[in-house]
Design goal:
Layout (H helix, E strand, L loop, with lengths): L1 E5 L4 H10 L4 E6 L13 E5 L16 E4 L13 H21 L4 E7 L24 H13 L8 E7 L2 E2 L8 H10 L4 E4 L5 E2 L2 E2 H10 L5 E7 L5 E2 H12 L5 E4 L11 H6 L7 H12 L5
Parallel strand pairs: 1-2, 1-4, 2-3, 4-5, 5-6, 6-11, 7-10, 8-13
Antiparallel strand pairs: 9-12
Helix pairs in contact: 1-5, 2-3, 4-6, 6-8
Length: 297
C-alpha cells in the first residue's frame, strides 16, 4: 500500500513509520526535515510541509491510506497559539479529507484525544455521549470539533477511524509530557503536585503497544472510534512509586486540595478488534528511563 502519515516525526508517527514501512511505501509528512527521528529505508519518502499553509497540490498521488497524526506545536498557548491549533487540528485534516475523496483514498484515520470525554470518573466508552457545550479548553475543543466535522465524511471511505489517545508514552517523547515530566521531577527532586492523596487515576499506554493497535486499523472495514490506552490503571503517585523502585530516588510530593477527575479509558473494543497491550507500566518506565535518562539505573 501507499500510506501517507502526517506528524510522522512525532512519538507515534515515527514508530508507525518504522512498522508500516516493512511492507508498504510510506510518505512521511514532516514540518522540517532537520531533526528527523525515524530511520529511513527504500520504502520511506519524506515530504516537508507546513500544515498551517497546507497545499494539497503538493501531495503525492495514488495514496491508499491516510493517518492524520499531526497536532499543533502550540496547543498549550492560548490565545496566542489558537490560530495555529485551529489550522493544524481542524482545517488541515478537513482539506486532506476532501483531497482524499477526490483521489479515491480508501482509508482515513484521525488521531484525537481521550480528553474530549466530558463524563470522567468512570472508564469512558466510545459510545458515551459527549456534551459539546462543555468548555474543555481550546486544544481539546479543536480535537472534538475535528471529530464532529470529519465524521460527515465517514461513509465516503471504505474505512474511517477516529482514535482517542490516552497518555501514550515512550522513548524520545517531549519532556513536557506527563510521564517524562514525572520521571524528570523524581530524578531532580522537583515537587510533584498530587490532587488529593494519590492524584488522578489513568491507564497510560506504551508507544509500541499503541502503534501495534493503530497498525491493525488498516485491516478493518467501516466506521470506528477507538480508545487507545493501557491495560493497567494507576494513580500519579503509583507511577512515581514505580519510578522510585527503578531509580532508587524518593519522590517529593505536594498535595493540593483541588480534586481533578480521573481519566480512564475502557479499551474493550481495542482489545477485541486491534491489540491487547503487552508492556506493563513498570516495564515501559524502565525502557523510557534507560533510553532517555542516561541509562543511569
Amino acid at each position: 500500500m501507499n500510506i501517507l502519515i502526517t506528524g510522522a516525526n512525532g512519538l507515534i508517527g515515527r514508530h508507525l513509520v518504522a512498522l508500516l514501512s516493512k511492507k508498504n511505501k510510506i510518505y512521511a509528512i514532516v514540518r522540517e526535515k532537520t531533526g528527523i527521528q525515524f530511520e529511513t529505508n527504500n520504502n520511506v519518502f519524506i515530504k516537508e510541509m507546513d500544515l498551517t499553509k497546507f497545499d494539497t497540490q503538493e501531495l503525492p498521488t495514488k495514496i491508499d491510506a491516510i493517518y492524520y497524526l499531526a497536532q499543533s506545536r502550540r496547543f498549550r498557548e492560548f490565545p496566542e497559539g489558537s490560530e495555529d491549533t485551529l489550522l493544524v487540528n481542524v482545517v488541515a485534516p478537513i482539506k486532506l479529507a476532501n483531497w482524499a475523496i477526490k483521489n479515491n483514498v480508501k482509508f482515513f484515520l484521525y488521531a484525537s484525544s481521550g480528553g474530549v470525554y466530558t463524563n470522567p470518573n468512570q472508564p469512558v466508552k466510545e459510545f458515551l455521549e459527549i456534551n459539546a457545550n462543555e468548555k474543555l479548553g481550546f486544544y481539546l475543543n479543536s480535537k472534538l470539533s475535528a471529530e464532529m466535522l470529519l465524521r460527515n465524511y465517514a461513509r465516503m471511505f471504505k474505512t474511517f477511524v477516529i482514535l482517542r489517545l490516552f497518555f501514550v508514552y515512550g522513548p524520545g517523547q517531549n519532556k513536557s509530557m506527563l510521564i517524562p515530566r514525572l520521571i524528570n521531577n523524581v530524578k531532580n527532586k522537583i515537587e510533584i503536585l498530587l490532587n488529593g492523596e494519590e492524584g488522578i487515576s489513568i491507564n497510560p499506554i506504551y508507544v509500541y503497544d499503541a502503534v501495534e493497535a493503530i497498525e491493525k486499523t488498516l485491516y478493518l472495514n467501516g466506521e470506528y472510534i477507538f480508545n487507545i490506552a493501557g491495560d493497567e490503571i494507576v494513580t500519579i503517585k503509583g507511577i512515581c512509586t514505580k519510578i522510585q523502585e527503578i531509580t532508587g530516588i524518593e519522590p517529593i510530593y505536594k498535595r493540593v486540595e483541588e480534586i481533578q477527575n480521573d481519566l480512564i479509558a475502557d479499551i474493550t473494543l481495542m482489545k477485541t478488534l486491534l491489540h491487547v497491550p503487552k508492556i506493563s507500566i513498570k516495564e515501559g518506565l524502565q525502557r523510557l528511563i534507560k533510553e532517555d535518562f542516561n541509562d543511569e539505573y
